[in-house]
Design a protein that fits this description.
This protein is an alpha/beta fold. The chain is built from 13 helices and five strands.
Length: about 325
């Protein structure tokens, strides 16, 4: 008879599956309305007919708040065991012109870096040093880390630096990646005229389907891989590096295609082509280091030195590199 009668799912298992569903929605950035989709309902039913999908309202009003409080309590217990923490914080504005601030906590646990996002919230008032300091105080008090902070890493914006040094009296560590960003941006200002010529040419190929197809055909004729030109993004200096690198890689096809299309574009002189190549060579190490520090949990002084030295052994440039000094 049990093969014909559908037994209801055990409440404990139902609760665990509901929580797993919320985690899936959060991790994969899915909308809560997925539980109302026909295909998802059929898929869930085939996996386990006894599982009753919760409604969208149940997920948002019951399951998610319950899971949030559970995870928050677990994280709070973990942070309590830390003897010292370092904070990172940043402010930014979304495409809808809404300002946000995020605060992240980092500490060592069992010889491993552990990080938790403590808060991410909308900044409604002016971004003054006093207001930023007030928000940081609120977040750190809520999580009980205010007496454990050894340093705070931020960018070099004057308001956040003043908030840390003048109002909170915390040790401030400037963001290494942001410093690299400022260095490269300042250097690229010296060659803006050449970069503008490159940007204009790249934009032309992106706007014109005929020119883009002709460029692909020219690359094929020359026996080269058919590569698309890359546009730079104003907020990311390394996109300028990628743009120039690709521009140099398909130099000959670009010159030939522009000659065939008779495009009235500002052309680069042989000297300017050479300058573009030199720019790529110069900023390439900065791009490597930026990528490294953005991806690694632990960035070592030796690793940075190894990446930024030219054809020199780690023993020659930094005898202590094997010790992997943490920065």
């Amino acid at each position: 008879m049990s093969s014909f009668i559908m037994r209801p799912m055990d409440p404990l298992k139902q609760s665990k599956l509901d929580e797993a569903l919320v985690k899936m929605i959060a991790c994969d950035f899915q909308p809560f309305s997925i539980v109302e989709d026909k295909g998802f309902k059929e898929y869930s039913h085939l996996l386990d007919p006894s599982y009753s999908l919760p409604s969208r309202k149940t997920l948002t009003k019951t399951v998610m708040p319950r899971l949030f409080e559970k995870l928050r309590a677990d994280i709070m217990d973990t942070i309590k065991r830390a003897s010292a923490v370092c904070l990172t914080t940043d402010c930014w504005t979304s495409v809808t012109t809404t300002s946000y601030m995020a605060v992240t906590c980092h500490f060592i646990e069992d010889f491993q870096m552990t990080s938790f996002l403590l808060d991410c919230f909308v900044l409604t008032d002016r971004h003054t040093a006093a207001h930023l300091a007030s928000e940081l105080t609120r977040v750190t008090n809520e999580w009980g880390v205010v007496d454990k902070i050894v340093a705070c890493v931020t960018d070099n914006a004057s308001n956040i630096v003043s908030a840390l040094k003048d109002h909170l009296h915390w040790d401030h560590v400037p963001c290494f990646a942001h410093l690299l960003n400022l260095i490269v941006r300042a250097a690229l200002k010296e060659v803006q005229a050449i970069l503008q010529k490159v940007k204009t040419t790249v934009e032309f190929f992106h706007r014109s389907t005929v020119a883009s197809d002709k460029l692909k055909a020219t690359q094929k004729q020359m026996g080269q891989e058919q590569l698309r030109l890359k546009q730079d993004v104003a907020t990311r200096w390394n996109s300028t590096f990628y743009m120039l690198k690709r521009f140099i890689e398909i130099k000959e096809p670009i010159i030939s295609t522009l000659a065939l299309t008779n495009a009235s574009l500002p052309t680069l002189s042989p000297d300017e082509w050479e300058i573009c190549r030199e720019i790529v060579d110069i900023i390439h190490p900065f791009e490597e280091v930026t990528t490294e520090v953005s991806a690694e949990k632990f960035v070592t002084a030796s690793k940075i030195i190894l990446m930024t030295t030219d054809q020199r052994s780690s023993e020659d440039c930094c005898p202590e590199s094997k010790e992997s000094i943490q920065i």
